[in-house]
Amino acid sequence: MLLILVFNPIFHKSKKITRSKMQNIIVFGASGQLGNCLKKVAEEKGINYIHFLPEDEANILREDLLDIVFEKYKPTFAINCAAYTAVDKAEDDVDLARAINKTGAANLAKQCKTYGTVLVQISTDFVFKGDVALPRTEEDAADPISIYGLTKLEGEQDITAIIDQYYTIRTSWLYSEYGNNFVKTMLKLGADRDELKIIADQVGTPTYAIDLAGAILDIIKSDKKAYGIYHYSNEGVTSWYDFAKGIFDISGTNVKVFPIRTAEFPTKAQRPAFSVMDKAKIKSTFGMEIPYWRDSLEVCIKRLSDTQ
């Protein structure tokens, strides 16, 4: 729950803001998985001009608070990691999902326009229907089949309508040492159970959030102005079943895993059957080399093991 504070905004939207020559980055949703990964990577890279804002200071649904944040930091970049990501709950909690994923993104875009700030928006592979077995490019039409995917797409569209200086980065199947995610869930279940049934007919690409955080900071560091929508995930293609098998193989967890179809495990929200994204644009534009998903999974599991 975000702490609600009352302020009287004293700033005028019409005033022209002069950007400082020094980089200044602010992060919204700093306490989440990607926010924590950004913090770790920034520390490793020695980046000390990035500010991870507490939730009571950085409520993206409160325009009065955002006025104060942007006036205080006058950021060159704002990274929006805040999102409603509970895919099944969103089907019933439509208003809140839309408020955070659409209205919150639009609120940030308005502030970025006023202050000359570049917005980095994190989006999702769930903007695609997933009924075509080809990697989706940024030019392919989005056609979400869940409220989560729809509200994230609406956020993308609002940003595009409001500002020109933005990077929208769609990603997929995020995991890391932080927060709740598939890898940590599988490790916990694998330690407690003898066998598991995992969906095998949904195909995509796992993404190590540490790798994504590094890519975001590399884009900022590049100082390129190649604004627009980009796709980023680790390299390769797998199913949830094979992802789980990889987790157990690498971690040495002894558990039997059985593949099942989506129809055998009904959920409130539909998921894309094939949500692999084409990453040629981000690789060619920024000269990125993206790690293979299983190589990054090995790194994550080792780090998790080292902290136990």
Automatic annotation (TrEMBL):
Question: Which residues does the UniProt record annotate as the domain RmlD-like substrate binding?
Answer: 24-304
Q: In UniProt terms, what function does this protein have?
A: Catalyzes the reduction of dTDP-6-deoxy-L-lyxo-4-hexulose to yield dTDP-L-rhamnose.
Specify whether Zinc is a keyword of the entry.
Answer: no
Q: What is this protein called?
A: dTDP-4-dehydrorhamnose reductase
Query: Which gene is this protein's source?
Result: rfbD
Q: Which family does it belong to?
A: Belongs to the dTDP-4-dehydrorhamnose reductase family.
What GO molecular function terms would the record report? dTDP-4-dehydrorhamnose reductase activity
Give the pathway listed in the UniProt entry for this protein: Carbohydrate biosynthesis; dTDP-L-rhamnose biosynthesis
User: What Enzyme Commission number(s) apply to this enzyme?
Assistant: 1.1.1.133
